[in-house]
Amino acid sequence: MSSPEPASAPFQPDRLFDGRGFASDPATGVVQNPAGDRVVYAPANFTRGLYSILRAEKAGTWPAAFQQGGAATGRRAAVQLDEELTRVGEPALAAMPLETCLTFVEHYCASHGWGVLKLDLADASEHGLVTARLTRSYFVEVLNDADEFVDPLISGILQGFFEHISGQELGCLEIACTRRGAPGCTFIITAPERLAAIAPLLGSADAETIIARLKA
Questions:
Q1: What pLDDT is recorded for position 146?
Q2: Do residues 104 and 85 touch, judged by C-beta distance below 8 A?
Q3: Residue 115 Ramachandran class (φ > 0 left, ψ -120 to 50 alpha, else beta)
Q4: Structure pTM?
Q5: What angle separates helix 98-111 from helix 152-166, to the nearest 10 degrees?
Q6: E strands, the chain, where?
Q7: 101: Cβ contacts below 8 Å, ≥ 6 apart
Q8: Contact, 174 vs 151, CB < 8 A?
Q9: Mean pLDDT of residues grouped by 10 in the chain (216 residues)?
Q10: Distance of alpha carbon 215 from its chain centroid, rounded?
């Protein structure tokens, strides 16, 4: 009687974000992530300088440019994840439970040094809202004297990632920041027109008030 086939090991999403997958070659000055893309680590002085230049150039340039760039980054990250999932014999993101997709984007942000991201689906089914809270934000730490929300890159990444897995046009907006006394930087992902309706509340209302308005 033949012995049964050994059970396959459960899929571990952590392995897609293992820092040991980053390759560094000091001889060429090139660092690559597991997908083969070149990575350049941005020191604090570089980020502060870039922020100052964009602010001086034109008001609103920083959030607009980084939201747009973040959205492209989020979509590309999702596509690369789909490619890697296919390679290891797993279904694509769109075919996975949403909770699993959240794990991927949380690990993505942490592995790239943006901070600790936690996503909440409590209001997703009834109100069409996904909430994300970010602690240890890189941009908040580096741009500690800025007078505005400074995480549009994270907003864009969330927007692009969720657009890829949902197949729908979405928006993401930061509605609270730790620098203004909130326990974490809070983001809302939902339809763009819903975010436009609460945009006038930004900076004058707390996250709970804005979320309550969206759920009303």
A1: 87
A2: no
A3: left
A4: 0.86
A5: 150
A6: 23-25, 30-32, 38-39, 116-120, 130-135, 171-176, 185-190
A7: 93, 161, 165
A8: yes
A9: 47 58 82 77 90 91 94 93 86 90 89 91 94 95 89 96 95 91 91 94 91 93
A10: 23
The total number of residues written for the chain in this structure: 216
Q: Does residue 113 sit in helix, strand or coil?
A: coil
Q: Please state, in angstroms and as integers, the Cα–Cα distance from residue 36 to each residue in 21, 28, 31, 125, 214, following that order.
A: 10, 15, 9, 37, 40
Calpha distance 99→85 (Å, rounded):
16
Give the rounded distance of the alpha carbon of 173 from its chain centre: 12
Spell out the SS3 assignment of 118-176. EEECCCHHHHCCEEEEEECCHHHHHCCCCCCCCCHHHHHHHHHHHHHHHCCCCEEEEEE
| Domains detected in the chain | 43-215 (3.30.1380.20)
